[in-house]
Design brief:
- This protein is an alpha/beta fold.
- The protein has 3 domains: about 325 residues, Alpha-Beta Barrel (TIM Barrel); about 200 residues, Glycoside hydrolase family 3 C-terminal domain (Rossmann fold); about 130 residues, Immunoglobulins (Immunoglobulin-like).
- It contains 21 helices and 23 strands.
- The longest helix has 24 residues.
- It is globular and about 75 Å long.
- It starts with a helix and ends in an 18-residue tail after the last strand.
């Protein structure tokens, strides 16, 4: 159904409603209007990495892990599977007139905020720190979720518009100060892509203020959305964010005034209860009826687009689609692609036939919580790292296990002495040929304020260190002298200096979903090669970063940082050895394409991510460092060469001035094509240079200036 037709139907329906009925539809738990045949509907549903909080569902890797795949097509497939399960649940629930929370078709995701600071507890809900990567993956997720059928399969929501990345403890009162250049260059691009390219159906405002305006009632943001980008969907508040107007931001005095401010500014739907005051605000002349009517029309347009009144081709999706074998297989694939190999001295892949004993140690080894991240559903089976390895090895290799320590408490048993499992961990290590050490965090240590009762800074991290008990465990295992593979389960940057110095391999697993144990085992034992890339920078320390509440991008993320990273954005090893051996720029009618030839000089088949970065050589307005502008996954057998053609948008040639205006400036651009960022630290870690191509816009000569400088990398 076209939007124009859906809107006409919505207008006709809303025209039959009283003002009381229209106002009621602006609440997330909209009541039924029986006389018009309108059933009750709860707008609140979540699908960050699978249908959440509504019972059985496929749990895919947490969003940050999906970001590490650098694979838009995979994100589209994952979102399509999520929408299928959402439809299956909606069909079954509505058939029993169960219209409770988390059972609708309007999903409040993806989260495309920029993970600008590693302390932010909700950073693992995002696709990382880069606006371009976030935009590409976010658009793919939206398209997969909403589908391309006659009706919309499910409705996606871009959140949290538009500047929100901590601190969690201050979010209800915080006023983020952002200059116009950073706003346009960093905070807005992913949202713009989701609106203009993805056609996202909804946008959610954030809790905080931005430059003095409440995000959920910002004239500036509404103008950008509706006038500049042409957004036609509905806008909603974060949950109980409008209550913050009068309780915390102090920009209004009463709930009635808060409701009026939000409605009049363009917030159609309230997650919370402040819109219970909309009628009173209307009666007191603070809101016009036509404003209420327009909000209701936008909301019912979405419901018509979803086929809720006229039927949908998706009404036939059966409940058997929930956590189907095909979806579990896809979750396992996604987990494999998400995992990032940070160090390998040659110990990986492990050889099953060369091992008699393996020690599996650590608080996250057999942890279901460490598989899930937050905003998750309920799997019918959770395969922990320990279980995945056990299932893979069967009876062929003896496995010893020890939790080693509690996640953050100083003992595992209340009546025991401190460090009560350290000696067991040492014994296990001493009796093993190799140790798999599983450490990290889970949603109780990094997450959303108030979401899991987190005691650490309301969900944020106070530093980059693992809890003290885990650091002590790492030291104890290292002292045994046995070979160690560290598996880190976290959603963000963790200081890995000790691991890099003392352990043989380091594999970042993120929160890999319910199939994570299978995927980890398949990589550890060489059934597949790791191929994930870091979507965030792992910094040397927090000392090089600005204060957490400083929203300036100076010194933050790979685009603006001034020091070498511990592990850089875009970095990740494989079991192969893929290099870009030649590259050239092909001018197109709009933008350009980078044609790169990649070769696997290694001894194992692997996926690899060919990455393209660009640096404006003429403009002082360009970001300090080269920025990602294109990427493509490629699979290469040993000795195989493949040519990939990576489109680069014309936007890559724009700069942003201090007034937030985009413009073309300069004609010389340096492109880099390789399997990592073109920084010195990535070269040090991989040993492979990126190809460099100087491109002058407007030149169509013999092409010599547009080809790689170094046809044979060192």
């Amino acid at each position: 159904m076209r939007r124009e037709e859906a809107r006409r139907k919505a207008q006709a329906l809303v025209a039959q409603m009283t003002v009381e009925e229209k106002a009621g539809q602006m609440r997330y738990n909209a009541p039924a209007i029986k006389r018009l045949g309108v059933p009750a509907y709860n707008w609140w549903n979540e699908c960050l990495h699978g249908v959440a909080r509504a019972g059985q569902a496929t749990i895919f890797p947490q969003a940050i892990g999906l970001g590490a795949t650098f694979d838009p097509e995979l994100l589209r497939e994952v979102a399509d599977a999520v929408a299928t399960e959402g439809r299956a649940k909606y069909n079954a629930y509505s058939g029993k007139e169960d219209r409770d929370i988390y059972k609708g078709l309007t999903f409040w995701g993806p989260n495309v905020n920029i993970f600008r600071d590693p302390r932010w507890g909700r950073g693992h809900e995002t696709y990382g720190e880069d606006p371009y990567l976030t935009g590409r993956l976010g658009v793919a997720f939206v398209k997969g979720l909403q589908g391309d059928g006659e009706t919309m399969k499910a409705a996606a929501c871009a959140k949290h518009f538009a500047v929100h990345s901590g601190p969690e403890a201050l979010r209800h009162e915080f006023d983020a100060q952002v200059n116009k250049k950073d706003m346009c260059e960093t905070y807005l691009p992913a949202f713009r892509a989701l609106v203009k390219e993805g056609g996202v159906e909804a946008v959610m405002g954030a809790y905080n203020r931005v430059n003095g305006e409440a995000s959920c009632a910002s004239p500036t943001f509404q103008k950008i959305l509706k006038e500049e980008w042409g957004f036609q969907g509905h806008f909603l508040s974060d949950c109980w964010a409008i209550r913050d107007f009068h309780e915390n931001h102090m920009i209004t005095a009463t709930p009635k005034e808060s409701a009026a401010l939000a409605v009049n500014t363009g917030c159609d739907l309230n997650c919370g209860n402040t819109y219970l005051h909309v009628l009173k605000a209307y009666e007191d002349g603070l809101i016009k009826e036509e404003t209420i009517s327009e909000a209701a029309v936008r909301l019912f347009t979405t419901r018509y687009l979803l086929g809720m009144f006229d039927g949908s081709e998706y009404d036939a999706i059966p409940y058997s689609a929930v956590e189907s074998p095909a979806h579990l297989k896809l979750a396992r694939k996604a987990a494999r692609e998400s995992m990032v190999l940070l160090k390998n001295n040659g110990i990986l892949p492990l050889k099953k036939d060369k091992l008699k004993t393996i020690g599996i140690i650590g608080p996250n080894a057999d942890s279901r919580a460490a598989l899930m991240g937050n905003y998750h559903g309920t799997a019918s089976r959770y395969v922990t790292i320990q279980e995945g390895i056990q299932d893979y090895l069967g009876e062929d290799v003896r496995i010893y296990t020890s939790v080693g320590c509690q996640l953050f408490k100083d003992r595992t048993e209340d009546l025991a002495y401190t460090g009560d499992r350290l000696s067991e961990a040492k014994i296990v290590a001493e009796n093993s040929d190799v140790v798999i050490l599983c450490v990290g965090l889970d949603e109780t240590l990094e997450g959303e304020e108030g979401d899991t009762g987190n005691s650490y800074a309301s969900g944020d991290k106070v530093d980059l260190e693992l809890p003290k008990v885990q650091r002590e465990l790492m030291e104890a295992v290292a002292q045994t002298g046995k070979p160690v593979v560290l598996c880190l389960m976290s959603g963000s940057d963790i200081d890995l200096k000790f691991a890099a110095e003392h352990f043989d391999a380091v594999l970042q697993l993120w929160y890999p979903g319910a199939q994570g144990g299978y995927a980890a085992a398949e990589l550890l034992f060489g059934e597949y090669s790791p191929s994930g890339k870091l979507p965030v920078t792992f910094y040397q320390s927090l000392e090089e970063l600005p204060e957490f509440t400083d929203y300036s991008m100076k010194g933050r993320t790979y685009r603006y940082m001034e020091h070498a990273a511990q592990y850089p954005f875009g970095y990740g090893l494989t079991y192969g050895n893929v290099r870009v051996v030649s590259a050239e720029v092909l001018p197109l009618e709009k933008g350009v394409a980078i044609q790169a030839e990649a070769e696997n000089a290694g001894e194992m088949e692997t996926d690899e991510v060919v990455q393209v970065y660009v640096k404006n050589l003429d403009s002082a307005l360009a970001p300090r460092n080269p920025v990602l502008c294109g990427f493509s996954r490629v699979r290469l057998a040993p000795g195989e060469k493949k040519t990939v053609r990576i489109p680069v948008s014309e936007r890559a040639f724009l700069v942003v001035d201090e007034n937030g205006m985009e413009r073309e400036e300069g004609s010389r651009f340096l492109f880099y094509a390789g399997c990592s960022q073109p920084d010195s630290r990535s070269l040090e870690l991989t040993g492979n240079k990126t190809m460099e191509i100087i491109f002058e816009r407007g030149r169509r000569d013999d092409g010599r200036s547009n080809k790689s400088k170094n046809p044979k990398p060192d």
